[in-house]
């Protein structure tokens, strides 16, 4: 039997600011520019979660996408939608909320909530032109 | 000669919060729900500005769209991009930053910066699903 | 004060078939072609509902879009999503489900459910390339 | 009975250059900038044609969109797709191919090919961010 | 020389229903929910077919995309566009038309119609938010 | 630490023509059809550049996307935007400007301008339906 990859897309809206509190104000302004703006800015984030597997013969599903949607909501979206990513989200505590760091943190939230080996890719669009993808730590071994 | 309507679309990213400071915390939470979230949230806003006129016979232009883009930048985008709409923007001072109030405020910023009678419509998408349009106070006479 | 137009977009998926039961099989096949296909076909419909009004000074809202979303769900989407538009929908009984007829029927569902004079336009995309718009019977007087 | 507006979207790809041959090289470079580039540039144009009318009781159609698509193809697209708008198109002879001038010329091509009073709007996107709309000479009377 | 991947996107509209006829009505309703709705529903499907190869030095083509479009039409689209995926399509006979099962079936239709080793990926969007991808049985060896 | 892939999307508009000057007029017309049209046609190209790496602990960046945008502008976009791909672009000299050949040429422009091993994928959309992807010569060893 053959592996099929299924993807579910969801949205959330959040405020954030790129800021490294271990560095000076000048370093932050120089490195992050307007993304360091003091009183925050925000985005309509688009999150795409891909799960891999062999379709179940009884259902034709790799995963029931309404269940996947619920898992994404419970473990990610309800914690970050209409929130401040620097201040309000326990699973982002101490993390600079760049798109790169967000996909790794979202992967970690989801990988334990899904059956082992199922999660394949997390892609996050900060804007329609800027995105990051993460395929998990298995790439590194 | 005939009127043609030309539209230029631009983007900006901002943080905001729906909050009426003349009302109680309870009223605000009840009326605005998660849009009242204390530490802000944000959006990728899409702004569409429409100008009406008769094309110039020498250029074929109602307005040079690179000039319109510059006017929108100077009078709107540079004031609100990567900013907090409640705290950072003089032309939004005292205004609850709902999409409805934003299109009226942006119209007022642009109408004085464009030749008289040129500005036709300001449309703002807060998300791809939610938008507001304003055609100016001439509708009201 | 000035009129602002706010739009909320929602989606639904449905099966349908263009068929006039008062006409012959040959007439239907000739007029409707593949849209008359016997065992139905279907679409991801995109519905845009526009409401007009003066923003409330306390909220900045013409209408709370979460309330508009709920009204659209209760009066339209829950009746037609994942349904057969020819067989399953009481408010479409006896109506050929062309995009034109659907926008008029959806207008009639919504106009009674919203405060008088609020509903401004119903637009429905059958596909990203094909759509219909209806501004209500007030155009006709 | 009530007016409904139906829209069909089509695409074409063309080369063009903004250039007024009655003016000097310097005037053209100053006014049109990179759009005056000597060896042409080009666009994926998106054309939206809107027709107004009362749905036919037998079909539910304002106009059969496959017929509208054919009319647009015969009178517009087959003349301009994969062509040079300055050199190859008889109905654009002597016209500076700005988006504004193109919507007026396309309106004139279509208005005679459709039943009287049916054509309502021609909208053309030169890019996803830049567009022009024309509602015909009836606005001017 | 280097491998390049070219993708062609096409659309089709179809009705379907998720239903396993070997199971009870209750099982089907419980597992598939509204996707099991008795009188069908439908989608605007978007199909993306990717072919891999080294560009031909004479043409610059991995494959002539107008030929690929014709192959997709002849082997897939003409069999399923404006059809019922459960009732009308010989190559889907006995298959529950989940997006996962559809990409595998479409791969099988196309892999024999294209030169050996050319087909790289079949991706199908049931809605803009839900999709499945299949890279063929070579992943499994 | 883990590899993350970041993508930046940019646009440019250009004229081109598919034509092999070593072949006859008849061969070119037969092979390239309307894409061989004598006086050029053009496209709004969408270019997506993906860079791979481990996020920097101080910034959370694989690469500063404003730097990547500048590199793409300096080495690609400023040479080809509002240009004729057959006539005006030194780095495309002698290359038939098919989408396949363009992604390889753009890869070569970018790979030397980015830190070694960073560039992962170049994807180019000629139209929203037609695209090509290139992952570099490392696939071939």
Would you give an account of this structure?
With 141 residues, chain A is an alpha+beta fold. Helix content of chain A is 26%, strand content 30%. Chain A contains three helices and five strands, in the order βαβαβαββ. Chain A has a five-stranded mixed sheet with strand order 3-1-2-4-5. The radius of gyration of chain A is 17 Å and the shape is elongated. In chain A, 48% of the residues are buried. Chains in contact: A-B, A-E, A-F, B-C, B-D, C-D, C-E, D-F, E-F. The C-E interface holds C 11, 13-16, 34-35, 37, 39-44, 81-84, 87-88, 127-128 and E 11, 13-16, 34-35, 37, 39-44, 81-84, 87-88, 127-128.
Features:
homohexamer, 141 residues, five-stranded mixed β-sheet, alpha+beta, 30% strand
- Which structural class best describes the helix and strand composition of chain A? alpha+beta
Per the principal axes of the C-alpha atoms, what is the gross shape of chain A?
elongated
**Chain pair forming the biggest interface:** A-E, 19 and 27 residues
**Which residues of chain A form runs of ≥5 with pLDDT under 50?**
none
How would you state the average pLDDT of chain A, rounded?
Answer: 95
Helix content, binned percent of chain A: 25-40%
Distance between the amino and carboxyl termini of chain A: 26 Å
Spatial ordering of strands, largest sheet of chain A:
3-1-2-4-5
The helix/strand order of chain A is EHEHEHEE
Oligomer: homohexamer
């Amino acid at each position: 039997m053959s592996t099929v990859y299924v993807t579910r897309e969801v949205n959330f809206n959040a405020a954030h600011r790129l800021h490294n509190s271990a560095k000076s104000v000048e370093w932050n302004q120089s490195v992050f520019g307007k993304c360091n703006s003091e009183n925050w800015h925000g985005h309509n984030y688009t999150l795409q979660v891909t799960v891999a597997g062999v379709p179940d013969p009884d259902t034709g599903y790799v995963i029931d996408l309404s269940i996947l949607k619920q898992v994404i909501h419970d473990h990610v979206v309800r914690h970050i939608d209409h929130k401040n990513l620097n201040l309000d989200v326990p699973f982002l505590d101490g993390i600079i909320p760049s798109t790169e760091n967000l996909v790794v943190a979202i992967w970690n939230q989801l990988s334990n909530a899904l059956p082992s080996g199922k999660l394949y890719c997390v892609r996050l669009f900060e804007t329609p032109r800027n995105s990051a993808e993460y395929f998990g730590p298995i790439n590194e071994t």
